[in-house]
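FORM 7B - TANDEM STRUCTURE REPORT

SECTION 1: FIRST PROTEIN
SEQUENCE AND TOKENS:
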Amino acid sequence: MRYVGPLWRGARRLLKLAALLVFAVVATIFVVRAVDSQRGPSLELWHTYSPPELDRQQLARTDLAGYLAAEAEAIAAVRTHVTDRLDPEDRVRFNRYFASSPIYPGRFAQDFNRTYVLEPKGEPAGAAVFLHGLTDSPYSHRHLAQLYADRGFVAIVLRLPGHGTVPGALMGVDYEDWIAATRLAMREAGRRVGPDRPVHLVGYSNGAALALMHALDALDDPALVAPARIVLLSPMVGVTEFARFAGLAGLPAIFPAFAKAAWLNIVPEFNPFKYNSFPVHAARQSFLLTQALQANIERHSRAGRLAGLAPVLTFQSVLDHTVSARAVVQQLHARLDDNGSELVLFDVNRSGDFEELLTVGSNRALADLLPPAPRAFRTAVIANVEPGKSAVVVRETPAGETQATPRALTATYPEDVYSLSHIALPFPMSDGLYGLEPDRADAFGIRLGDIAARGEYGALVVGVEMLVRMTSNPFFPYLAERVAAGLPPPR
């Protein structure tokens, strides 16, 4: 018999204790999450139903026409299985799935939940593919897509799988499906304009991560259509640490009694073009996508292959609760060669009383983000001309230089706005749905950007953070100026 000494016996006891401790912690989290998930509203048809979508193998074999046909079937299925089966209590004014609601997407002249293509006047100068964010829809790119179309580009604005229908659809798609859909749209763009005209790739949030993934993959695979330019808004290069463990939050949902644990948020669906409810699976997929993206960037950086990447134009608010602004700088731009890339940062508003109410980290966000000049990429920082002054300037520093040149902007921060946000960047102040100063002719049944709710805390079915978050960009004209730089003049 082999002798087992006291040290080994002690080590085994420690291992057993550690295993029991881990089990106790996981069990506690499981129970707490299971109990907590039972609070709040019940799951509705739009949470439990998932329409059919093409999977990644089918997406690899089809074209845009086939995708549009499948998309139409998915939207028709939602009408049959959700809209036509609503309980009486769900047939209310601000339910996007109620056919008589003023926000029902099918009643608008254009349903921005669907993929759409904008054709330019005359012969195309190129093509641009637009990728929206998680829980979002093609609506988020309507303004930039029109800018491209006005300048001679075919604009292909893609609805990513799982979006534009019901939140439950996000329970059945993975980030590899989104990658396959991106490749489909880029194939269509290449087919439309041929090999001699440029294809640009524009991504917002989760769509920006997909844009970068495709551009990096195209460096390795000549069969993929490579972008000549990459435009990113609030790019999801990195996400919060909670997303790393989001999958654990959904564990109790393996038992039908705790099905609500599969959802991080269950909120009424009063936005015609974006889900309010958010499943755990979607959060997990966004995290996995950023992990794959960071590994892809690292691999190409070590091999010295980022030099072949197209110029990257990035717009980022220094305060962003959804993605890591630091990752945008350190994981992406700091690794790029001097290839014409540019980073535009929107600082906090330092003109009023809000600055004294900001946390230390929020106040120092800009100073902590940028590495010292000279940098290998152009930078532009939009900020108050000085603290306490409402005037705003953009300080532009060319790549390789140390001196910033200030330029006055006519736009200023509204006095009651302390910063931009993750979701504000793609929308001008006049946007009918999200604008702080909405164009009344640009109507979608509800205005979410100029809500000024006042009342008692805890009384609303939505969190106060949904109402105070800035949803439009007072500096959108500068953003449009930078996007238009290098494009043909308007036709």
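SECTION 2: SECOND PROTEIN
SEQUENCE AND TOKENS:
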Amino acid sequence: MKITDVRVHMLQSPLAQPFAFSQGWVDRRSATLVEVSTDAGITGWGEAFAQGLEPPQVAAAAIEHALRPLVVGADPLEVEVLWHRMYHQTRDYGRKGAVVAAISAIDIALWDIAGKHYGQPVHRLLGGAFRRSVQPYATGFYRIRGQGEAARLAEEALAHFEAGFRLMKVKLGYGVDDDIAVIRAVARAVEGRGVTLMVDTNHAYGRAEALRLGHVLDEMDMRWYEEPVAPEDVDGYCELRAKLRTPIAGGENEHTLYGFRELLGRHAVDVAQPDIGSCGGITGARHIVALAQAHGIEVNPHVWGSAVAQAASLQLIAALPVTHHSVFAREPVLEYDRSSHPFRRDLVAEPIDLRDGRVQIPQGPGLGIELRADTLQRFRIA
């Protein structure tokens, strides 16, 4: 079997209601999808994580001009070989960011092809499923005005609860005083309801502000405090982890086992969060998981993007071993973005849904999803 073509699909859709996270305002949804074709008639799908406010054209250019020539004509089942070929050939101008996200997209598509070739879900090829379903956590609490929205966000927490979520991640990073007002209002709203909270500031702060917020979070029983400082500030991560009781999480802006080597080796985080669409794909995630296991650090993937990234992340989570084994070991959870996103439900024939508080791992071959051509056509950027 040989790869005959690599095609990029850039999708974009304006949002009726723009919203903000700590790094800026989001007025549209974007996705960079890749379709890898073979001479056996098997097609695989992957996705490059359009990080933050990144235009989808950035990773698309890397796929089309740098990576496509490296894989066309190759055997798609040689996934590890092709990962190293792509990484080493782009090392001088890659290693981080959109280039590794582009590698991730092709790698995910290769695993999708392998699963379809063998008639097995990807998690079976990864060694089997530790779990058949996963508990999701609602990501949301974005701002539509900026500051002073604590009451509205407390109501949002109740809406997530009514939808069946018992884990919720609150987006902060809009000024420490405003953050404190928000997290206290949200905590009061769900008090006594069996809800566990986590927070994410998307590296909005320096160490002093992050520490000030962290001392307030220590008053609550948080699952984690995510991206408290800039991803480059590993010393800052270490300092906050040493001074705070709340577990520190990070890694969505880190890439490959080479990037995670310092973060894990210095025990800068309690929870490592590689994103499958930017850390190096499924192959890159396998490398990182093994490294994290060796350092005794929990892995809980960050999940963003379209239904393709969701499905690929579910396959990884199914095959993810717990780090600290016990009879009642803590299981990984699935990030489930609840904000407006047309490339989630509309992109696949069977959307990924919450049922009885759980999300089922797709059992079909490959990623276990079927993309809808009409949705691709409707949102495709020329």
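SECTION 3: OBSERVATIONS ON SECOND PROTEIN
The longest strand covers residues 3-21.
Residues 3-119 form a domain with the Enolase-like; domain 1 fold (CATH 3.30.390.10).

SECTION 4: SIGNATURE
Preparer initials: ____
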